[in-house]
Write a structure and sequence with these properties.
D-Maltodextrin-Binding Protein, domain 2, alpha/beta, 2 domains, 5-stranded mixed beta sheet, 6-stranded mixed beta sheet
Length: 257
């Protein structure tokens, strides 16, 4: 039987937030979250559930798809986006609870290759990515909608190589799908977040895109207006507790103070 008791850091964090007071009836927290958050957020949710008795149900997808679903009326309590623009759209629709939006995480954009021993690539203005690809594909999330794809396209444009590789880009509905293509060997190279690469053994990070080549990668989180119970706010608070910071950092995210 697995041990579902929370770790000491998690207990301390939850006690500090007042989440382990006299238990009330268990509630469900429904979270819509960017696909790149999966490993870190799953760990945070598991600890929260063990410590509180509440249930956390998480739907992972591209931030664009999740924002559209929320605006169209999908029932969710918390939204965590991989870019500020999609959180902005939800806020414009009047669906964010007042004073709950906060930027909680950052990330790094990397070039990955299939396998465990790929040679490093010098990512610099004008680097010959097209020659590296040869007849292969460059796996990316949707470049005009999904944040990872948008950041990746911006980086390639900023480095002056987008036009050379655009015909070779294979687009996926979210960044984890783009990662999977490279891991399976269906594309020799891909552009994902550092946190995604850390979650997959069958890829190698061969280069990191300069931070100045693309907009800052920021993950905002917010309580939605449909949230109806204290468990929702408690989980939002738990996302920035020390134990959650450690879980996200272990997956390659940068924790925003």
């Amino acid at each position: 039987m697995p041990n579902h008791r929370p770790t000491r850091p998690v207990l301390a964090a939850l006690l500090g937030l007042g989440l382990l007071a006299t238990p009330a009836a268990a509630e469900e927290v429904v979270v819509f979250a960017a696909a790149s958050l999966k490993d870190g957020l799953d760990a945070v949710a598991a600890d929260f559930q063990a410590a509180t008795g509440h249930t956390v149900t998480i739907s992972y997808a591209g931030s664009n798809a999740l924002a559209s679903q929320i605006i169209e009326g999908a029932p969710a309590d918390i939204f965590i986006s991989a870019a500020v623009n999609w959180m902005d759209e939800v806020e414009k629709a009047g669906l964010i609870a007042p004073d709950t939006r906060a930027d909680i995480l950052g990330n790094t954009l990397v070039l990955i290759a299939h396998g465990k021993d790929a040679a490093p690539v010098d990512i610099a203005p004008g680097f010959d990515l097209a020659s590296l690809l040869g007849d292969g594909k460059l796996s990316m999330a949707l470049v005009d909608a999904v944040p990872a794809g948008q950041y990746g396209k911006a980086a390639l444009e900023g480095l002056g190589v987008w036009s050379a590789v655009e015909p070779s880009v294979a687009q996926s509905e979210n960044v984890r799908a783009a990662l999977a293509l490279v891991a399976a060997g269906e594309a020799p190279f891909g552009i994902v977040y550092a946190s995604d690469a850390a979650a997959e053994d069958n890829v190698t990070v061969v280069g990191t895109f300069p931070a100045e080549s693309h907009p800052p990668i920021v993950y905002p989180a917010a309580l939605l207006t449909g949230a109806a119970d204290a468990a929702d706010r408690a989980f939002l608070d738990a996302l920035t507790a020390p134990a959650a910071d450690a879980a996200f950092a272990a997956q390659g995210f940068a924790v925003i103070d």
